Predict the structure of Biopolymer transport protein.
Amino acid sequence: MARKRIREDEEAAIDITPMMDIVFIMLIFFIVTTSFVKEAGIDVNKPEATQAVKKPSATIFIAIRANGEVWMDKRPVDVERVSANIERLRAESPTDTIIIQADKEAKHGVVMEVMDQIKAADPSLVITVAGENN
């Protein structure tokens, strides 16, 4: 009788190691294939665009608040340092497109200074100003 009971216990055991291996492999696959979206780090009240055209995605976002603050890579930046920050970010991940997200209440002069700094970093860069429809 004792032998029969031991055999039943051994047969009832289920090995979940192969299932766990598959789950971990699937988890790694989904983590690697997920695309991450970079944002400027702040919310701006963007103006609406009547003739919006979709542009290719960029990895460098610059946000300009209504009070004139310039944000890059989720931190505030002086307007004079925009060029140096663009060069640093392009060294990390090369791109030809930079998106400016300016608040509709932002001063035009600040936006133009940021554009000048972008062109000082590299005149061949494509600048896109994001509106409500972009």
In short: Strands lie at 60-64, 70-72, 75-77, 97-102, 126-130.
